[in-house]
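Troubleshooting entry. The earlier prediction with flavin-adenine dinucleotide gave an output that would not parse, so I re-checked the input for stray whitespace and re-submitted. Clean input:
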Amino acid sequence: MTLLKNLGIELNGVIRDACRRVVVINSAGSFLLTDNEPIISVVSRDEFDNYLLSNALKIGAEYLVDRVIRVNVHGEYVNVVGMNNTYTGRYVIAADGANSVIAKQLGNDIRRNTAMAFMTIAHGSYLNDACIIDMTRIKWGYSWVFPRGNGEYDVGIGSIHWGNYKTQLIKYIGELGLREGDVRGHPIPIRARDKLVSKRIALVGDAAGLADPTTGEGIFYAMYSGALAALALRHSSNPAEFANNYLGGY
Ligand SMILES: Cc1cc2nc3c(=O)[nH]c(=O)nc-3n(C[C@H](O)[C@H](O)[C@H](O)COP(=O)(O)OP(=O)(O)OC[C@H]3O[C@@H](n4cnc5c(N)ncnc54)[C@H](O)[C@@H]3O)c2cc1C
């Protein structure tokens, strides 16, 4: 939230629900965290991502839809080869997610060090406005219930061990008295790739493997690494100024 504020982006319009009460369940018991400020803010990724895109368009970004196949680096420029077209630029900031073709192209094994999470939007009248994080349901991971308003709940299970969490998630939703929607699973890379930068290419976000290894939280790290990569390019003619301003002199 602070990062977005610093980037001049106000989120009020896209926050579905703001949890000021979070129940954390672990082997020692159940604990209620409360605060006057939201501890967890819930967005719908469709709405959130569209909102970020519309902000980027407003300040001059150009949006082209294609599926990237590879990047060819030449002396002073790069060609991004897509299914429909080839695009030329000076640099590539690769934000193509957990299954990044560009991370693979740099020689990274993108199947290594990934967690797995399944989630669904569940419906029903589960009358609890708190967010729930339960670390007792599976090994090496946790389940969550985040209210989204209008009788909708973001319910999921994630772990650093891969397993059949889809079945466990459906069972969990039944126990909560809710009805599941589409259940979707996706890898979350939780360790930085061996190679993050090469010539005119920089990996960011899940492409770079930057999600938090304990929580699987990755949106902040994706946005922060994207912003840092953009700032680094903007200051590339003066790296010392960049280091002083943004990296504490390192
Ligand atoms: C079930 C689940 C729940 C999660 N919950 C949370 C949470 O509550 N909070 C949190 O902070 N994080 C959460 N995460 C992690 C978070 O989703 C990711 O860390 C985050 O989305 C990474 O952002 P990104 O921009 O790097 O990648 P993505 O959000 O995955 O975006 C990558 C984009 O690149 C596009 N793309 C991919 N390949 C190509 C190609 N070849 N050509 C063109 N485009 C391409 C994709 O279509 C996509 O739009 C969750 C993950 C999962 C799986």
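This one parsed fine. The radius of gyration is 20 Å.
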